Amino acid sequence: MIYLDYQATTPVAPEVAKVMQPWIEEKFANPHSPSRWGREAAAAIEVARKQVDKAIGLKGGSVAFTGSATEAINWALKGTVEKVPKGRNRIITLATEHAAVLDTCEWLAGQGIDLTVLPVRHDGRLDLELLARELDDRVLLVAVMMVNNEIGVTQPISEIADMAHSAGALMFCDAVQAFGRIEICKGPDLVAVSAHKIHGPKGIGALWMRKGTEPAPLIHGGGQEQGLRSGTLSPALCAGFGAAAKLADERCTRDYDHVQKLWKAAVHALGHGWKINGSAAHRYHGNLNIRREGLDAARLIADFRDIAFSLGSACASGSGRPSHVLRALGLDYRQSRSSIRLGFGRYTKQAELLDACHRLAKAAVEHEKLDA
Ligand code: PLP
To answer: Is the pLDDT of residue 368 over 80?
Structure first.
């Protein structure tokens, strides 16, 4: 299998699996128990917390572990609304956000929050003048992702955070696709990340919270995470997340350079006739979302069982619905059904990527002929 779906998930790093193993096979103690074993597990979790915090790289806040980035996002949005100062009842977000943000915002709108979903430009970037016009003293939160999961386009997070703060609002950033790949921009008050996008295990995410902006708890119970999030933590998942974060931090430049090289090689190998969806410059280059006139993307995926790639997000691929992100760029139904996403990273070999690109490009030409 040639795995080109790095935005959906990433292979677990061998170093991560090794760190997790003893916590699965031998060390089963509850990290919240006062026994020696329990304290040992709790200490391992604190090491992991520091590793994730360091890799996030922001100052003046703390990390709380969650069951996923989806949970961290729900917590950040709903918990901030719960603590809202009087008179602030508006959330601003973008049409290209992940479903975890958009659906949570829609749910909050059903509870009485005034929701503004801003459009993006054709290149997928937010028009900052539009945001400036929208910001007022009723806005409590601006929620914008750093790297889009479907098209890889980046947003100017620091500028957005500055603008939000000037209006007295908080800034939440979904940094799931940025974390471990590019440096997280300074400025946000709340940042959601996920382990399985950085060669860590599935089933664990985290919320970074600037001191003083911690959201109200979403999950109630034993209060294990600083009294803010309940549930017994998994030492194996936490240790795995920590190891993945440490590795990503250490390999940051090497992984980034590798991805830049792969991007250039892939674009060259695909040849003419492809258009890049979203800005080619303002993006993370491990995400190559492209379209081609006449291409039947769903058929291409079905035809190439030995190449794992996708139509956009894993969610969009599953539903059969055209991607809301591509529609937000102004692509029509046909264009979005002619788009594919190739995602690559640390363990992708250039030769396998080129092999996949050559075969996909050849098949796309065949589709064109059939379509003519
Ligand atoms: N946000 C973005 C941008 C994502 O790509 C994903 C995962 O697909 C999520 C949030 C949700 O992450 P998790 O799988 O940890 O819930």
So the answer is: no
Summarised one tens digit per residue, pLDDT across range 309-332 is: 998 654 455 556 779 999 999 999
Of the residues 173, 185, 238, 315, only one is catalytic, namely 315
Binning pLDDT at 50, 70 and 90, where does residue 367 land?
A: confident
Q: What DSSP assignment string belongs to 221-256? A: SS-TBTTTB-S---HHHHHHHHHHHHHHHHHHHHHH
Mean pLDDT for all residues in the chain: 95
CA-closest residue to ligand 1 atom 13: 69
Q: Give me the pLDDT at residue 312, please.
A: 64
* Ligand 1 pocket check for 98: Cβ under 6 Å: yes
Which residues, 6 or more positions from 236, have their beta carbon under 8 angstroms from its beta carbon?
20, 23, 24, 201
Long-range contacts of 60-63 (CB under 8 A, 24+ apart): 60/210, 60/211, 61/208, 61/209, 61/210, 61/211, 62/208, 62/209, 62/211, 62/214, 62/226, 63/206, 63/207, 63/208, 63/209
CA of 277 to the centre of ligand 1 (A): 20
Q: What is the CA radius of gyration of the chain?
A: 21
Instruction: Tally Cβ neighbours within 10 Å of residue 165.
Output: 15
- Active-site residue, 105 included: no
How far apart are alpha carbons 197 and 13 in whole angstroms?
11
List the alpha helices (DSSP H) in 26-138. Answer: 36-56, 69-82, 99-110, 128-134
- Distance (angstroms) between ligand 1 centre and the Cα of 72 equals 10
Give phi and psi for 246, each to the nearest 5: -60, -45
Rounded to the nearest 5°, which phi and psi values hold at 222? -70, -10
For residues 7 and 150, the answer to whether their CB atoms sit within 8 Å is yes
CA of 70 to the centre of ligand 1 (A): 6
